[in-house]
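Friendly challenge for the regulars: who can give me the structure tokens for this chain first? No prize, just bragging rights.
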Amino acid sequence: MQKIINVAIDGPAGAGKSTIAREAARRLGFVYIDTGAMYRAVGLCASRKGTNMDDAEALGRLMKDFDLGIKYANGVQRVFLGDEDVSEAIRTPEMSMAASRVSAHAPVRTALVELQRELAKRGSAIMDGRDICTHVLPNADVKIFLTASIAARAGRRLKELLEKGENVTLEEVTADMERRDYNDSHRENSPLVRAADAELIDTSDLSLEESIEAVISHIKEKTKDVL
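First reply, four minutes later:
Bragging rights claimed.
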């Protein structure tokens, strides 16, 4: 029986975690688990229901009936609220900030961490987020902290949003990212920090392809006896 390999990737918003992890997983034949999408889905649900995203008790009640579905098609993760595919609806600046707000509360994190750990048991996977190395998968075979300068991250995010037709400025994107960095690193529950045993990969001066190759190279090096 082939060993299940879990790769945990943490890092700040806009570091390219999702894009890099998704492609690395595809090339390695792993499943990609996007935990950020799950928090965005909670934010979307809270927004639609008018739930106070800063009220832990209200979010706890929301999570009791939260119907989140994670499905895979050709290794690509799709996110569902009930029967509705919200994979695109959660990819807005508003849902980015909503995810940061709801993720600060224990009832949300407890429910989603349980699901994330269950998904990781099903097969070799790359999972990215804010506390994967430190909390969700502390015993992962490979741990990576993926980062980049605020200028590089904001520039990339701006390009992505403009390509989607969003009307935003670099100043707005930078301010939004700085707020999220602060929220993620200062929250009481599982803040964003680099795990002591996580490999630091800075993509500020790397192309997308170079970043993907750096991640794959480290994974192969750490798992060369089993891959």
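The longest strand covers residues 68-73. The chain has a mean pLDDT of 92. Your move, everyone else.
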